[in-house]
Write a structure and sequence with these properties.
2 copies of one chain form a homodimer. Chain A folds into 2 domains: about 70 residues, Homeodomain-like (Arc Repressor Mutant, subunit A); about 140 residues, Orthogonal Bundle (Tetracycline Repressor, domain 2). Chain A contains 10 helices and no strands. Helices cover about 75% and strands about 0% of the residues of chain A. Chains A and B meet through α1, α6, α7, α8 and α9 of A and α1, α6, α7, α8 and α9 of B. Chain A binds a DNA duplex (18 and 18 nucleotides) through α1 and α3.
Chain lengths: ~210, ~210
DNA sequence: GTCTATACTCCGATAGAC
DNA sequence: GTCTATCGGAGTATAGAC
């Protein structure tokens, strides 16, 4: 019988909180905010229901924390670009990084999808503020590329939506993708194949050719 | 005081059932199966909760009926194609009809999205049967077009997913689209613009050119 | 056919024993 | 810090009055 050291206690807390966050992300993603029960989250995390509430305070706080975690992952991916950059490189990097996020955090992507599906009640501010600003900033660069003849004069906002939707699809509609392709899960080669396909079709479709080719 | 005729009674029933279906489609789409409450559906339909259950039997039956209604709309759109058809015409018709469905039935699209998001528990059979068969049939035609040099050798299944995701996005992620474009809703011109954009980029991206051009 | 009342279950959240 | 017991409310569904 040894007394747990403060470090042990902290470690347990951190581990439990991590388990709760991961379990909750999955449950919220599948059933939405209202459809998710603290009970179901607790079971998925392997803890009693009251412990979950003890750690996170309330269902609402837990949900908000998860959205914030997902938005910080998203923001970490959104680097700036300038007119001087190579369109082909930027577009390809955009598609690939978005696909990586989809792949490494499918539950987060689905959580976001569920939130937007119900009208984005918790994310209105983010969508109409930070994210809108980022989109328009990038859109202006795309337009300048078009003017310089580096790509076709396509609507830059529709292009961003195209890339978002095409990549997110493999997380949000995973059940459909797996059903139709008759797989249990997509492996490295599948993701490679999809990503290459999207880069090829979208770049060519926008009339983008690499400067160095 | 007149006695209602049988025709009146039937008419009331039909009207109520229609109201319930439409209201339920919206509520299920926003909150998922578990998150939707019969109470909320009843309020949206302007009827007492017990009347809703009286008409539809149970929450589960109502949900299944809605999925079936959506799948029949979907199926009505899936016409067959042959190798002899013009790739440009077929692809463009595919994109446009899918976009029309998205536009005329956004709640149905969101209902489907919510169902797939939770792992498609009610639609496994449809996805792995009917729909998979349809996809592979079409995929084979795309491959033959590629062999004949009528389009680039792209993966036909990824192409179908691209078209599905890019169009559905405007129903499923409507809240995000409206937030970023700062609109209250998308009008005719917006849908026209998006559809033209998608046709242009996807056809060109796949190396498809019209036979008649 | 329609509405009221209610049965019974599960929800989120908390108080209090250990 | 953790678990048990329980509260008040909301969930689906039904029985029975009108």
């Amino acid at each position: 019988m040894t007394t747990p050291t403060p470090a042990d206690v902290t470690r347990t807390r951190v581990r439990n909180e991590q388990q709760i966050l991961d379990a909750a992300e999955d449950v919220f993603a599948r059933h939405g905010y209202r459809g998710a029960s603290v009970q179901a989250i607790a079971e998925a995390a392997g803890l009693p229901k009251s412990n979950v509430l003890y750690y996170v305070g309330s269902k609402r706080k837990l949900y908000v924390a998860l959205l914030e975690r997902m938005m910080s992952r998203w923001n970490a991916m959104l680097d700036d670009i300038s007119v001087e950059d190579d369109p082909a490189e930027v577009l390809e990097a955009f598609i690939r990084s978005k696909m990586t996020l989809t792949r490494t955090h499918p539950e987060g992507s689905r959580l976001f999808a569920a939130e937007v599906l119900q009208g984005a009640p918790f994310l209105q501010e983010y969508l109409r503020g930070e994210l809108r600003e980022w989109v328009h900033q990038r859109a202006r660069v795309f337009e300048q590329w078009s003017e310089r003849g580096l790509m076709d004069p396509v609507d830059p906002v529709w292009l961003i939506f195209l890339i978002w939707s095409a990549t997110q699809h493999y997380a949000d509609f995973e059940a459909q993708v797996l059903g139709i392709t008759d797989r249990e899960r997509l492996d490295d080669a599948d993701y490679q194949s999809v990503t290459d396909f999207l880069c090829q079709v979208i770049l060519k479709g926008c009339g983008v050719t690499s400067r160095r080719s």
